[in-house]
Amino acid sequence: MTEPQGSSERNRALAQDHVATAPARRATRLAFFAAGFAMACCAPLFPFIKKNVSADDAQFGVLLLCLGLGSVLAMPITGMLAARRGARPLILLGGFGMIALLPILAAVQSATELGAALFVFGAALGTIDVAMNVHGAEVEGIEQRPLMSNFHAHWSIGGFFGAGMMTVLLSLEGSVAFCAGMGAATALVAMLIARPDFLSVAGKKPEPLARPRGIVVLLAGLTGIMFLVEGAVLDWGALLIIDRQLAAAENAGIGYILFSIAMLMARLSGDWLVARIGQLAILVLGGAMTIIGIVVTLVPTEPTLALFGFLLIGLGAANLVPVLFSAAGRQTVMPPGIAIAAVTTTGYAGILLGPALVGFVADATSLGTAFWLLAMLITALPLTAWWVVRA
Fold first, then answer.
1. pLDDT for 1
2. pTM above 0.85?
3. Do 153 and 264 form a contact (C-beta atoms < 8 A)?
């Protein structure tokens, strides 16, 4: 059977688009990698940075809020500018900014200087976070196929290598300044390779700092829920394992490790899966699997089965956020840059505030109850999936 002429021409046009945007696709992956790498470099360095400024735990907690504040303030501004100017200059500004700030974080000697440096580092991170998602949505729109899951997978890959590299260098007794410099240099190489290949796409002038409206409000709320879940697994997963006596304290991190591995593997195959079964099925099945994973961690008394729940949470949750970002870039109610900024900002708020809310609920009831409530919140994704895919 011969292929219809119109279909054949369309397939050839799409293939040409794929070839033409291959460099931009690769550049987007490198941007996600660089951002995840630079952010992950901080975690192993923070104990040494804390010591440099002679801060106690409470003071350092306040200083870390500067990082989150810088990100949250930069994200909506980035969305507005990306809608006006395109994502490329903002990816470069945020990427090279965070690279420049990483060695500075390791060098400052006072709490005031560290707070200022963390604020600017957070602003740079927030800028590249929004801009690279806008760029990813642009590439995805040109190629007319799912790409966002793989982009987000490269953030996870960068995070894995960033944390691993810092841990190895520190274990070899490298100085904090040397380790931070090596981390910055690695991220710099990724950004320099990517720099020539970002798309130069500028949008129409939108209303400045527009409030989310229509479907964007739903997308932002759903993204906030999913980032809340990811933050809860990161900050409370080990404590849940200890609370349920599933593992000794020194091994309690196994839950988050299983979650992270499952999420990375699922995101690497996520675009293929979205293309095969569609975004509606991903939202319904992924949401259901995430809920089942939480239930499995809470109900069984058999440790192996309960830990398997963390794998299910990672597999189910992995591609939900990429689908939501794709919908934000595809909708026409607001300029894509502003919509993605709203989704990113709400998601980041979920990471910042979520663990604290979980702790409040756990203190008032129990940690298990807090995770049951998370499972209830996740039901919003399959229940609203039809509206999301129509965005």
1. 45
2. no
3. yes
